[in-house]
Write a structure and sequence with these properties.
Layout: H1 3-11, H2 18-30, H3 35-48, H4 52-63, E1 79-83, H5 91-100, E2 106-110, H6 120-124, H7 136-146, E3 148-152, H8 159-170, H9 177-191, E4 195-202, H10 211-227, E5 231-238, E6 246-247, H11 249-260, H12 266-283, H13 289-301, H14 304-315, H15 321-324, E7 334-339, E8 344-349, H16 351-363, E9 377-380, E10 387-388, E11 393-399, H17 402-415, E12 416-419, E13 429-434, E14 437-440
Parallel strand pairs: 1-4, 2-3, 4-5
Antiparallel strand pairs: 5-13, 6-9, 7-11, 8-10, 8-12, 9-11, 13-14
Helix pairs in contact: 1-3, 2-4, 2-8, 4-9, 4-10, 5-11, 5-12, 5-14, 9-10, 12-13, 16-17
Amino acid sequence: MQMYDLIDKKKKKGNLTREEIDFIIKGYTDGTIPDYQMSAFLMAVCLNGMNQKETADLTIAMANSGDRMDLSKITGVKVDKHSTGGVGDKTSLVLSPMVASLGIPVAKMSGRGLGHTGGTIDKLESFPGFSTSLTTDQFIANVNKIKMAIVGQTANLAPADKKIYALRDVTATVDNISLIASSIMSKKLASGSDVIVLDVKTGSGAFMKSYEDSLALAKEMVQIGTIAGRKTYAVITDMNQPLGNMVGNNLEVMEAIHTLKGEGPADLLEVSLTLASYMLLGAGRAASIEEAKELLKETISSKKALEKLAEFIEGQGGNSEAVYNTDLLEKAKIVEEVYAPGDGYVTYIHTDEVGMTSLLLGGGRETKDSIIDLSVGIKIHKKLGDPVLKGEALATLYANDQNKLNRAKARLLGAYVIGKEQPEEKPYVYAVVTKDGVLQL
């Protein structure tokens, strides 16, 4: 078998066998296939596509390219959730303790933020002493005892994906549904959970800007998970504005805690409840989404979810006192508001620009080695459809550097479009994709 022949086959719109895909992934991972040949292959895929079987075979080959988490020692049906990334997306901090407090094991591997997309690991480090560097035995023990543990991704988890993604990033081969889906799902399959719930964002702050593209990605990932023998659901949620009102690590942790106290914003609660409901459905804990939502709401009213969050933080070495008193979390030194330049309605928000504002303040990473300032961020006062008056606060910025703050204020102001007509209200959740089809909500 020769890589040249496989590139030529895909260039001529041929379909690759599983053995041929395994050969490509193994060869590129071990270095016997060079970057220039892999680049040519990726471009051929972008131009001519892959069918569902090829995409599933590619995903499984990448999942098998390194370590795979063995969660067989964890009692019960293991559930996990993955988001395609957004601004203000702190759902893992809300839904994980809700689900775990119902006795369902949440065994989660999460990443750090890069660019303006926040990472769950960074948010959790708002709690002094918290560690995601658990051994496999510690991870399994915590899930069995607490029903919840979150660790960072190991260096050798789906290494083929890491290597291929770096190449795609510099060869204009990122925006292909098969390549995107296989990248996400290879890590989820290698992580070992039985049930995978995918939060597929759509809108101005999402990787997929259009609903049609988000739906296509959701279908592809559910198909992959189903072929691989995992119960897989994809929930398409709105990212035409930040989720909730807070953007920035400590601020998002505070908002997640307030949500578990029953005091959170409606959009964050609804998205978290919907995602968590499908985790319960997949685990066999509820017979319907309606039943699942009632069970989850009870974990908030009874404070069981809040207590579970504190138990989880303590279990990984963190100081959980901040769960009950968010004033203990680190605060930024400078607080300034950004004011509306005129009257009207918020007709559009360039959500990715809101994320970039947080990045400018120091709340995100420009490179993998950047150090995040956990205390900075944004509190959103005006969201889509809200009426505004000239001089009224659109948002509050939290900063520790005046120069960064000055640049961030201009960036945030540019993210808002204020017009004369009130826009139509957008749903928090658009649709759910299962192996049986698409449920429009």
